[in-house]
Amino acid sequence: MRSLRLLIACAVLACGAANHLHAAATPACLENALPLETLGNDSESLLLLAKACMREGKPLRAVALLSQIIKSDPTDVVAYVNRGSANASAGELGNAISDFSVAIRLDSDLVQAWYDRGTVLANMGRFESAIADFTEAIRLKPDFAFAYCNRGLANSELAHYDDAIADYSVGIERNPREPYCRFNRGNLYLTLGEYQKAVDDLSQALTAKHNDPIALTKRGQAEEALGRSSQALDDFRAALSTRPELQAAREGLDRIMALQKRSDGKGELPRNP
Protein backbone atom coordinates (compact mmCIF):
# COMPACT_ATOMS: atom_id res chain seq x y z
CA MET A 1 0.00 0.00 0.00
CA ARG A 2 2.61 2.49 -1.14
CA SER A 3 0.35 5.29 -2.46
CA LEU A 4 0.80 7.47 0.62
CA ARG A 5 -1.69 10.28 1.09
CA LEU A 6 0.02 12.03 3.97
CA LEU A 7 -1.39 15.27 5.17
CA ILE A 8 1.08 17.97 6.03
CA ALA A 9 -1.45 20.66 6.95
CA CYS A 10 -1.22 22.30 3.52
CA ALA A 11 -1.65 19.25 1.30
CA VAL A 12 -0.86 15.58 0.88
CA LEU A 13 2.27 13.56 0.36
CA ALA A 14 5.63 15.26 -0.12
CA CYS A 15 4.50 18.87 0.09
CA GLY A 16 6.85 19.15 3.06
CA ALA A 17 5.94 19.97 6.62
CA ALA A 18 3.36 22.55 7.54
CA ASN A 19 4.12 26.15 6.73
CA HIS A 20 3.66 28.07 9.98
CA LEU A 21 5.13 31.36 8.85
CA HIS A 22 3.59 34.64 9.92
CA ALA A 23 0.26 35.30 8.22
CA ALA A 24 0.65 39.05 7.71
CA ALA A 25 1.02 40.59 4.26
CA THR A 26 4.41 39.72 2.85
CA PRO A 27 6.83 41.24 0.37
CA ALA A 28 8.24 39.37 -2.58
CA CYS A 29 10.97 36.86 -1.87
CA LEU A 30 13.67 39.17 -3.29
CA GLU A 31 15.87 36.15 -3.80
CA ASN A 32 18.53 37.98 -5.77
CA ALA A 33 17.90 41.54 -4.65
CA LEU A 34 19.09 41.64 -1.05
CA PRO A 35 22.07 39.82 0.46
CA LEU A 36 21.42 38.33 3.87
CA GLU A 37 23.82 40.69 5.59
CA THR A 38 21.72 43.65 4.40
CA LEU A 39 18.75 42.29 6.32
CA GLY A 40 20.64 42.21 9.60
CA ASN A 41 18.96 40.63 12.61
CA ASP A 42 15.42 41.91 12.09
CA SER A 43 13.68 38.61 12.83
CA GLU A 44 10.21 39.88 11.91
CA SER A 45 11.35 41.06 8.47
CA LEU A 46 13.32 37.87 7.92
CA LEU A 47 10.28 35.80 8.85
CA LEU A 48 8.08 37.74 6.43
CA LEU A 49 10.59 37.29 3.63
CA ALA A 50 10.85 33.59 4.41
CA LYS A 51 7.07 33.31 4.09
CA ALA A 52 7.24 35.00 0.70
CA CYS A 53 9.96 32.61 -0.43
CA MET A 54 7.89 29.60 0.65
CA ARG A 55 4.87 30.99 -1.17
CA GLU A 56 6.96 31.45 -4.32
CA GLY A 57 8.39 27.93 -4.15
CA LYS A 58 11.89 28.92 -3.04
CA PRO A 59 12.35 26.93 0.17
CA LEU A 60 16.16 27.02 0.16
CA ARG A 61 16.07 30.82 0.28
CA ALA A 62 13.61 30.52 3.17
CA VAL A 63 16.07 28.19 4.92
CA ALA A 64 18.82 30.80 4.55
CA LEU A 65 16.60 33.55 5.94
CA LEU A 66 15.47 31.46 8.89
CA SER A 67 19.07 30.42 9.57
CA GLN A 68 19.88 34.11 9.94
CA ILE A 69 17.28 34.35 12.71
CA ILE A 70 18.65 31.24 14.42
CA LYS A 71 22.20 32.57 14.19
CA SER A 72 21.06 35.67 16.05
CA ASP A 73 18.94 33.73 18.57
CA PRO A 74 19.66 29.99 18.84
CA THR A 75 16.64 29.58 21.13
CA ASP A 76 14.05 30.91 18.65
CA VAL A 77 11.75 27.89 18.55
CA VAL A 78 9.47 29.41 15.89
CA ALA A 79 12.42 29.82 13.54
CA TYR A 80 13.40 26.17 14.02
CA VAL A 81 9.87 24.92 13.28
CA ASN A 82 9.64 27.08 10.18
CA ARG A 83 13.11 26.10 8.98
CA GLY A 84 12.08 22.49 9.42
CA SER A 85 9.07 23.18 7.19
CA ALA A 86 11.26 24.85 4.59
CA ASN A 87 13.82 22.04 4.68
CA ALA A 88 11.06 19.47 4.23
CA SER A 89 9.67 21.39 1.26
CA ALA A 90 13.18 21.44 -0.25
CA GLY A 91 13.46 17.68 0.17
CA GLU A 92 16.09 18.00 2.90
CA LEU A 93 14.27 15.61 5.21
CA GLY A 94 17.20 14.88 7.49
CA ASN A 95 17.69 18.59 8.13
CA ALA A 96 13.95 18.96 8.71
CA ILE A 97 14.02 16.20 11.34
CA SER A 98 16.96 17.91 13.03
CA ASP A 99 15.15 21.27 13.14
CA PHE A 100 11.94 19.81 14.54
CA SER A 101 13.95 17.87 17.13
CA VAL A 102 15.66 21.05 18.32
CA ALA A 103 12.26 22.77 18.51
CA ILE A 104 10.97 19.90 20.65
CA ARG A 105 13.98 20.14 22.97
CA LEU A 106 13.34 23.86 23.34
CA ASP A 107 9.61 23.39 23.94
CA SER A 108 8.41 19.83 24.49
CA ASP A 109 4.79 21.01 24.51
CA LEU A 110 4.97 22.36 20.96
CA VAL A 111 2.29 20.24 19.30
CA GLN A 112 3.09 21.31 15.75
CA ALA A 113 6.73 20.26 16.03
CA TRP A 114 5.73 16.73 17.07
CA TYR A 115 3.16 16.55 14.28
CA ASP A 116 5.51 17.89 11.61
CA ARG A 117 8.36 15.63 12.65
CA GLY A 118 5.98 12.67 12.59
CA THR A 119 4.84 13.62 9.11
CA VAL A 120 8.39 13.83 7.78
CA LEU A 121 9.29 10.54 9.46
CA ALA A 122 6.31 8.90 7.78
CA ASN A 123 7.37 10.29 4.42
CA MET A 124 10.77 8.68 5.07
CA GLY A 125 9.10 5.33 5.77
CA ARG A 126 9.95 5.41 9.47
CA PHE A 127 6.42 4.55 10.50
CA GLU A 128 7.00 3.34 14.06
CA SER A 129 8.78 6.58 14.95
CA ALA A 130 6.10 8.58 13.16
CA ILE A 131 3.37 6.87 15.20
CA ALA A 132 5.20 7.79 18.41
CA ASP A 133 5.32 11.46 17.36
CA PHE A 134 1.68 11.56 16.28
CA THR A 135 0.71 9.92 19.57
CA GLU A 136 2.51 12.66 21.49
CA ALA A 137 0.83 15.34 19.36
CA ILE A 138 -2.53 13.74 20.18
CA ARG A 139 -1.69 13.59 23.89
CA LEU A 140 -0.98 17.31 23.83
CA LYS A 141 -3.98 18.14 21.65
CA PRO A 142 -6.64 15.40 21.85
CA ASP A 143 -8.84 16.99 19.17
CA PHE A 144 -6.02 17.17 16.57
CA ALA A 145 -7.87 15.46 13.71
CA PHE A 146 -4.98 15.52 11.25
CA ALA A 147 -2.68 13.78 13.72
CA TYR A 148 -5.19 10.93 13.98
CA CYS A 149 -5.40 10.77 10.19
CA ASN A 150 -1.64 10.61 9.70
CA ARG A 151 -1.23 8.10 12.51
CA GLY A 152 -3.89 6.04 10.79
CA LEU A 153 -1.90 6.10 7.58
CA ALA A 154 1.29 5.07 9.38
CA ASN A 155 -0.59 2.22 11.09
CA SER A 156 -1.99 1.17 7.73
CA GLU A 157 1.48 1.05 6.21
CA LEU A 158 2.51 -1.30 9.03
CA ALA A 159 -0.56 -3.48 8.37
CA HIS A 160 -2.07 -2.48 11.74
CA TYR A 161 -5.41 -2.23 10.01
CA ASP A 162 -7.70 -2.21 13.05
CA ASP A 163 -5.65 0.60 14.59
CA ALA A 164 -5.71 2.47 11.30
CA ILE A 165 -9.49 2.23 10.97
CA ALA A 166 -9.84 3.41 14.58
CA ASP A 167 -7.57 6.40 13.96
CA TYR A 168 -9.32 7.38 10.75
CA SER A 169 -12.69 7.11 12.46
CA VAL A 170 -11.63 9.43 15.29
CA GLY A 171 -10.15 11.86 12.77
CA ILE A 172 -13.45 11.90 10.87
CA GLU A 173 -15.35 12.43 14.11
CA ARG A 174 -13.09 15.35 15.05
CA ASN A 175 -13.33 16.99 11.62
CA PRO A 176 -16.19 15.49 9.56
CA ARG A 177 -15.84 17.93 6.66
CA GLU A 178 -12.17 17.22 5.96
CA PRO A 179 -11.95 14.71 3.06
CA TYR A 180 -8.44 13.45 3.85
CA CYS A 181 -9.41 10.91 6.53
CA ARG A 182 -12.45 9.80 4.55
CA PHE A 183 -10.29 9.13 1.50
CA ASN A 184 -7.72 7.12 3.40
CA ARG A 185 -10.29 5.08 5.30
CA GLY A 186 -12.11 4.40 2.05
CA ASN A 187 -8.87 3.37 0.39
CA LEU A 188 -8.14 1.00 3.26
CA TYR A 189 -11.63 -0.47 3.08
CA LEU A 190 -11.01 -1.07 -0.64
CA THR A 191 -7.78 -2.89 0.18
CA LEU A 192 -9.56 -5.00 2.80
CA GLY A 193 -12.35 -5.95 0.40
CA GLU A 194 -15.07 -4.01 2.22
CA TYR A 195 -16.26 -2.47 -1.00
CA GLN A 196 -19.53 -0.83 0.05
CA LYS A 197 -17.81 0.88 2.96
CA ALA A 198 -15.14 2.05 0.51
CA VAL A 199 -17.81 3.49 -1.80
CA ASP A 200 -19.49 5.28 1.12
CA ASP A 201 -16.28 6.90 2.36
CA LEU A 202 -14.97 7.82 -1.07
CA SER A 203 -18.35 9.34 -1.98
CA GLN A 204 -18.18 11.46 1.16
CA ALA A 205 -14.64 12.54 0.29
CA LEU A 206 -15.79 13.52 -3.20
CA THR A 207 -18.53 15.77 -1.83
CA ALA A 208 -15.76 17.88 -0.30
CA LYS A 209 -13.22 17.50 -3.09
CA HIS A 210 -15.18 17.29 -6.32
CA ASN A 211 -13.70 15.41 -9.27
CA ASP A 212 -10.59 14.25 -7.44
CA PRO A 213 -9.27 11.71 -10.00
CA ILE A 214 -7.69 9.39 -7.42
CA ALA A 215 -10.85 9.23 -5.31
CA LEU A 216 -12.95 8.67 -8.43
CA THR A 217 -10.66 5.85 -9.55
CA LYS A 218 -10.73 4.18 -6.14
CA ARG A 219 -14.50 4.44 -5.99
CA GLY A 220 -14.70 3.05 -9.52
CA GLN A 221 -12.63 0.06 -8.44
CA ALA A 222 -14.95 -0.55 -5.49
CA GLU A 223 -18.03 -0.22 -7.70
CA GLU A 224 -16.47 -2.65 -10.18
CA ALA A 225 -15.81 -5.15 -7.40
CA LEU A 226 -19.48 -4.87 -6.41
CA GLY A 227 -20.50 -5.67 -9.98
CA ARG A 228 -21.83 -2.17 -10.64
CA SER A 229 -20.11 -1.67 -13.98
CA SER A 230 -22.10 1.39 -15.09
CA GLN A 231 -21.18 3.35 -11.98
CA ALA A 232 -17.59 2.17 -12.24
CA LEU A 233 -17.38 3.30 -15.86
CA ASP A 234 -18.76 6.71 -14.92
CA ASP A 235 -16.08 7.10 -12.25
CA PHE A 236 -13.21 5.92 -14.46
CA ARG A 237 -14.31 8.26 -17.26
CA ALA A 238 -14.66 11.19 -14.86
CA ALA A 239 -11.17 10.51 -13.49
CA LEU A 240 -9.68 10.36 -16.99
CA SER A 241 -11.40 13.59 -18.00
CA THR A 242 -9.40 15.31 -15.27
CA ARG A 243 -6.20 13.26 -15.55
CA PRO A 244 -5.99 11.45 -18.90
CA GLU A 245 -2.69 9.79 -18.01
CA LEU A 246 -4.03 8.08 -14.87
CA GLN A 247 -3.16 4.45 -15.55
CA ALA A 248 -5.39 2.83 -12.94
CA ALA A 249 -8.47 4.61 -14.32
CA ARG A 250 -7.51 3.72 -17.90
CA GLU A 251 -7.00 0.07 -16.95
CA GLY A 252 -10.35 -0.02 -15.15
CA LEU A 253 -12.14 1.50 -18.12
CA ASP A 254 -10.48 -0.87 -20.60
CA ARG A 255 -11.13 -3.88 -18.38
CA ILE A 256 -14.87 -3.23 -18.10
CA MET A 257 -15.24 -2.33 -21.77
CA ALA A 258 -13.51 -5.57 -22.76
CA LEU A 259 -15.79 -7.60 -20.49
CA GLN A 260 -18.86 -5.86 -21.84
CA LYS A 261 -17.72 -6.45 -25.38
CA ARG A 262 -17.31 -10.16 -24.69
CA SER A 263 -20.82 -10.29 -23.27
CA ASP A 264 -22.14 -8.25 -26.23
CA GLY A 265 -22.63 -5.25 -23.94
CA LYS A 266 -25.88 -6.65 -22.57
CA GLY A 267 -26.78 -5.35 -19.13
CA GLU A 268 -24.67 -5.15 -16.02
CA LEU A 269 -21.77 -7.49 -15.41
CA PRO A 270 -22.46 -10.32 -12.95
CA ARG A 271 -22.03 -9.35 -9.32
CA ASN A 272 -19.23 -10.89 -7.34
CA PRO A 273 -20.38 -13.89 -5.28
In a few lines, what is going on in this structure?
The chain is mostly helical and 273 residues long. It has helices at residues 36-39, 43-55, 59-72, 77-89, 93-106, 111-123, 127-140, 145-157, 161-174, 179-192, 195-208, 213-225, 229-242, 247-262. It has two domains: 1-152, Tetratricopeptide repeat domain (Serine Threonine Protein Phosphatase 5, Tetratricopeptide repeat); 176-273, Tetratricopeptide repeat domain (Serine Threonine Protein Phosphatase 5, Tetratricopeptide repeat, Alpha Horseshoe), CATH 1.25.40.
Number of helices: 14
The CATH C-level name of the largest domain is Mainly Alpha
CATH fold-level topology of the largest domain: Serine Threonine Protein Phosphatase 5, Tetratricopeptide repeat
Task: Please tell me how large the radius of gyration is.
Answer: 22 Å
Q: What does the largest sheet look like? A: none
Q: What is the count of β-strands?
A: 0
What low-confidence regions span 5 or more consecutive residues with pLDDT below 50?
A: 1-19, 21-26, 269-273
Look at the structure and give the mean pLDDT: 86
Quickly give the CATH architecture of the largest domain: Alpha Horseshoe
Helix content: 55-70%
Kindly estimate the percentage of residues that lie in beta strands according to DSSP: under 5%
Helix and strand content put the structural class at mainly alpha
| CATH level 4 superfamily of the largest domain | Tetratricopeptide repeat domain
User: Number of domains in the coordinates?
Assistant: 2
Which outline best applies? Answer: elongated
Q: Strand-and-helix sequence, N→C?
A: HHHHHHHHHHHHHH
What is the CA-CA span between the terminal residues? 25 Å
